[in-house]
Automatic annotation (TrEMBL), chain A:
It comes from Lasiosphaeris hirsuta. This is DNA primase. Residues 96-107 have a biased composition (Low complexity). GO terms for biological process: DNA replication, synthesis of primer. Residues 1-113 are annotated as: Disordered.
UniProtKB/TrEMBL annotation, chain B:
Gene3D superfamilies: 1.20.930.80. It comes from the Eukaryota. It comes from Lasiosphaeris hirsuta. GO terms for cellular component: alpha DNA polymerase:primase complex. Pfam families: DNA_primase_lrg, DNA_primase_lrg_N. Its cofactor is [4Fe-4S] cluster. The keyword rRNA-binding does not apply. This is DNA primase large subunit. Keywords: 4Fe-4S, DNA replication, DNA-binding, Iron, Iron-sulfur, Metal-binding, Primosome. PANTHER family: DNA PRIMASE LARGE SUBUNIT.
Length: 530, 511
């Protein structure tokens, strides 16, 4: 593993965080590469700290947890909040500065579009000026004032050299922001809330005192899991045609979570390339243990087995109400987005797959003959043929009910959400934070308003490069706003952050109602910590 | 600490008497009421009964429980069991509904007392506790299903389980959805309309398995549990409470050891509760058999399917997974393989393991099973007892790559037929019979059918010669019994052969 970094103990370099311009200019002139990213990270580090750096991570999501075993000694986590060189309200300060910024002619003496998404200079501006730290904090904290929900929450950073830092935790959004700016991670993951502060886990006498307590219920759907039924793209590629699978998935899962389980706070986040994540923040959902999570996963799971295992949907009849409803939701999509847009059975070998899913052998033979004689027949026609042929050539012992059920199963196999179920089953599974930049595409992992999910276009999500350009291009309106304009408000990120903010606000409002007593407990605890 | 002096007369607390005095001041117990025929047996009985009653009631209940357990060994369906148990219950432990009998109080009292007496008798070891709670649960379920609907609902209501009955209005609102769950849980349509079915609303987290398998309708975090599934809820609750109570009883039981009136009765009761499953009657050494590691391959022809399957797997792969090793080691122990021989057997059997790995990972387990190492109770008890069919059938269904379990139950028909044919069972009628037994979940029958087929000649001769009594030819419910019987039958052949050949040795067949 190339760039494994053992405890990065930095000699205290100049406090560079606020003086971003020189730093930015500095790095911009240098060739771009991993080494630069590291020097850069070192340069901005402000307090001597020994951090735990985990070895290069495997790109596999599933393997993340295992990596935690390889740990270097976690030394002191110097509480850098005591040093006052970093004011506690940087956001405000910046906001105050911001009107002047566009007027300074060359804030960036480079063209953002030429740089990659993991370029440290761009990334720094993003973290510094656009990332909604405060709302992220409130979302995880469920309250405006810091609680243990946030303080004991694990953050995981992927550093530019691919090294991986686990068990980071912060007392406030400012400290988190500051550390992110110091380390410049290319990716931030969010883990569970632990029973003790993750940074202090080594100080515990018994290991049992450190265990995950709560986390949002999460779902992860990837378009790669649809490869055997989508014809337009494969692997990491997506287009608007296959994105419709996501639309269907979101509709079905949202209905289950809302109507069946009664969860209210469900947020869908675009994962930056080819998938989406869901975060359910209801208190009951957060506090579920692994067995409860498995129950929900099992309730949702319909498509079983791999691509090789033949018929992948085998449901008991009569269908469970939730499946009846899902089928209702999916029927329209099946016609439009699968039969017409994907045309999955046009070629004869793909059509064979459809035939294998039908129950009646003589029906299969008749259809096969018919389709072989007219190659290139569209999927919608073939789908219609099934009923037509069944009607005309139905034998005595033809089972119309079995055919109907098989057709229902086929509709589900081609439309029903395919979850990466392990993400949902485990309390301590890590998941990428919203608003992080996807390093490959440069797109921001934006939350998606489910009410307008059908309009969401993953290909036009703002990218890091476009956002920086937009700040530059922003012209102050004639009529000055009463409040100073925040940087994110100048960009196309605005609607997403607005949505996030309103989502977080309703979440906090609901939390406030129930947790008067708990908050007092939390205060007691934090008193001890101080 | 300052001790409070309870004898001091405090003018402000004049009425406070020493609580110890107060507790025993007036030992009048509240007369036990039996409002429902069913009971969770929460409160122990307090009134006096005679010693004869004590013993008789317990024996009566034991009759019922033993028969009930036997039904489960024979894989009777719940309807068959109910039919079979009806006369027995009426005779030994009648329990009538509120309206139907004047004997209600006496009946319920007997039920109540006998339950608690048996609790005392069967609380001492974990095995007994498990077995007792299993059969008591069976009895409870049987009675629960037989009970009058109205009284059953009243009983459920009295349990204070936080359920909410679904109103008719709500039922109508979700009629279609609820109907789907009712039909699926019954397998076939038994209710023409939703009005015949009662539902209760319960937080979904209370019934996770029903939710996971999509057997209940869910709405806003509440599961709508149909009455059929309510039964399983109540029964689960019953078992959970009984198990907890039994542990408490076990802790309190030593207080009784001094009592020379009850202890003998209780001991006697617990000993008489021996059913075919509990253990394989220990005289494991079978005369004339050379039971050594070397000879196992030779003996394997007498093994039942489950064991010959594990044996084959071991020979084929040079390895067995944990439960396979456990099940097989215990079986070998049961047929009389000594610990040393057993270690030799495994050392040779686990071909892929180095000496070091074997010593580190496997030796201890084998010794533990034999009671050579481990905790005090393990060593004193001589390790574990061999698994019965009951245990193999119900516990630890084998997963991928595992070779334990009962082939009649855990294999699909194709693999089972393959296994049988590989063992020389080619008779079409037998295979067909096995298939039918398997479909009806009568795995014992299938196994015995195969046994009878394989030993048909010997059995015939044994019957003709009258060598074996009818009792010895009862249904086999233990793998070791299978081996023993098979070995004796086959060897009887050899023995008579050798006699005919003029071997002349007077070999007596052990029973």
């Amino acid at each position: 593993m190339p760039h494994s970094v053992s405890p990065v103990t930095e000699a205290s370099p100049p406090p560079a965080i606020e003086m971003d311009e020189p730093a930015v200019a500095d790095t911009a002139q240098q060739p771009i590469g991993d080494d630069i990213a590291m020097t850069d990270a070192v340069a901005i580090a402000d307090a001597p700290q020994a951090e735990e750096v985990v070895e290069d991570r495997d790109a596999e999501k599933g393997e993340k947890k295992e990596t935690s075993g390889i740990k270097l000694e976690d030394l002191f986590t110097g509480d850098s909040d005591e040093d006052d060189e970093f004011p506690n309200a940087p956001a405000k300060k910046e906001a105050a500065n911001s009107p002047n910024e566009p007027s300074s002619p060359s804030e960036f003496d480079f063209d953002p579009s030429e740089l990659t998404a993991s370029d440290p200079a761009l990334l720094r501006s993003f973290y510094q000026r656009l990332f909604p730290w405060r709302y992220l904090f409130q979302w995880l904290n469920h309250s405006p004032t810091p609680t243990l929900d946030f303080e004991h929450r694990e953050f995981v950073f992927t550093l530019p050299n691919e090294a991986w830092m686990r068990y980071q935790s912060y007392r406030s959004s400012d400290l988190l922001r500051k550390d992110v700016l110091r380390l410049m991670p290319t990716r931030i993951d969010i883990g569970p809330v632990y029973s003790t502060n993750p940074r202090e886990r080594k100080m515990l006498q018994n290991v049992a005192g450190f265990r995950p307590l709560s986390k949002e219920l999460c779902f992860d759907i990837d378009l790669t899991d649809y490869d055997d039924i989508r014809t337009c793209c494969d692997k990491a590629n997506i287009c608007n045609k296959c994105w419709q699978f996501m639309t269907m998935a979101v509709k079905v899962i949202t209905a289950v979570l809302r109507d069946d389980f009664g969860f209210k706070h469900i947020m869908w986040v675009y994962s930056g390339r080819r998938g989406i994540h869901a975060w359910v923040s209801d208190r009951t959902a957060r506090n579920m243990d692994d067995s409860k999570r498995r129950v929900i996963a099992g309730y949702l799971e319909v498509i079983t087995g791999g691509a090789q295992s033949g018929k992948r949907v085998n449901l008991r009849r009569p269908l469970h109400p939730h499946l009846v409803r899902s089928l209702d939701i999916l029927k329209g999509h099946f016609q439009e987005d699968v039969l017409e847009a994907q045309d999955p059975w046009r070629s004869s070998d793909r059509a064979e797959k459809l035939l294998q899913l039908l129950p009646d052998i003589s029906l299969r033979d008749t259809l096969r003959k018919k389709w072989d004689s007219s190659p290139g027949r569209s999927s919608s026609s073939k789908w219609a043929d099934i009923d037509a042929v069944a009607k005309t050539s139905a034998g005595k012992n033809f089972d119309a009910k079995a055919l109907l059920e098989a057709k229902q199963d086929i509709v589900l196999e081609y439309t029903y959400p395919r979850l990466d179920i392990n993400v949902s089953k485990k309390l301590n599974h890590l998941l990428k934070s919203p608003f992080v930049i996807h390093p490959g595409t440069g797109r921001v992992c934006v939350p998606i308003d489910t009410r307008k999910f059908e309009d969401f276009d993953p290909l036009s999500v703002p990218t890091l490069q476009s956002l920086i350009r937009e700040i530059d291009a922003w012209v102050e309106p004639e009529v000055k706003a009463e409040k100073p304009v925040q940087d994110w408000e100048k960009t196309s990120l605005k609607p997403y952050i607005d949505y996030f903010r309103s989502y977080v606000n309703t979440l906090m409002k609901d939390e406030r109602g129930v947790k008067v007593k708990r908050e007092r407990d939390d205060e007691g605890d934090s008193m001890e910590l101080w | 600490m300052i001790r409070q002096d309870f004898n001091r007369i405090d003018p402000k607390r004049r009425n406070t008497v020493d609580y110890r005095k107060k507790q025993f001041a007036d030992p009048s117990y509240k007369e036990t009421q039996y409002p429902h025929s069913l009971s969770f047996y929460a409160a122990p009985p307090t009134a006096d009964i005679t010693l004869e009653q004590f013993e008789q009631w317990a024996i009566d209940r034991l009759h019922v429980l033993a028969e009930l357990e036997a039904c489960s060994f024979r894989n009777k369906s719940s309807a068959e069991t109910a039919l079979h148990m009806k006369p027995l219950l009426d005779k030994y432990l009648p329990l009538d509904t509120n309206s139907s009998s004047s004997q209600v109080f006496a009946q319920r009292q007997k039920d109540h007392y006998s339950h608690f007496i048996l609790r005392l008798a069967f609380c001492s070891t974990k095995d007994m506790r498990q077995r007792f709670s299993r059969v008591e649960t069976m009895l409870f379920r049987l009675r629960f299903n037989a009970d009058d609907t109205r009284e059953r609902n009243a009983f459920i209501g009295s349990l204070n389980l936080d359920w909410e009955t679904v109103s008719d209005e709500e039922k109508r609102q979700y009629a279609a959805e609820l109907m789907a769950t009712v039909v699926s849980s019954f397998g076939k349509k038994t209710h023409q309309s939703i009005d015949d079915e009662t539902f209760c609303k319960i937080d979904w987290m209370r019934v996770p398995d029903l939710v996971e398998s999509r057997k209940v309708f869910l709405r806003a975090g509440k599961a709508y549990v149909p009455s059929k599934e309510q039964q399983s809820l109540v029964v689960t609750e019953f078992t959970a409470r009984l198990e907890k109570a039994l542990e408490l009883t076990a802790r309190a039981r030593p207080d009784l050891d001094e009592d020379d009136r009850l202890s003998p009765i209780l001991d006697h009761l617990s000993k008489s509760f021996v059913a075919p499953d509990s253990k394989y009657a220990g005289d494991s050494a079978i005369e004339g058999a050379e039971i050594t590691a070397r000879n196992i391959d030779n003996l394997a022809q007498h093994f039942p399917m489950c064991m010959s399957h594990t044996h084959r797997t071991l020979r084929r792969d040079g390895h067995l997974k944990h439960f396979g090793r456990l099940q097989y080691t215990l079986f070998l122990k049961g047929i009389g393989l000594s610990l040393d021989e057993c270690l030799t057997f495994w050392r040779q059997g686990l071909k892929k393991k180095t000496e070091d790995e074997f010593n580190k990972e496997y030796r201890y387990n084998v010794r533990h099973v034999y009671g050579d190492v481990g905790g005090d109770s393990n060593r004193r008890g001589g390790g574990y007892s061999p698994f019965s069919c009951q245990k193999i059938l119900t516990e630890h269904a084998p997963g991928a790559g595992e070779a334990h379990g009962c082939p009649y139950r855990h294999f699909n028909m194709e693999s089972l037929a393959g296994l049988l044919q590989a063992s020389g069972v080619n008779d079409r009628a037998v295979l067909q019979g096995v298939k039918e037994d398997k479909d009806k979940q009568k795995f014992h029958l299938a196994c015995n059918r195969v046994f009878e087929h394989v030993h048909r000649n010997e059995l015939k001769r044994a019957k003709d010669d009258g060598v074996m009594t009818a009792a010895q030819l009862e249904m086999i419910v233990h793998p070791n019994e299978y081996f023993k019987r098979s070995f004796l039958l086959k060897n009887m052949g050899k023995v008579s052969q050798s006699q005919r050949d003029g071997g002349g040795g007077d070999v007596k067949i052990e029973e």
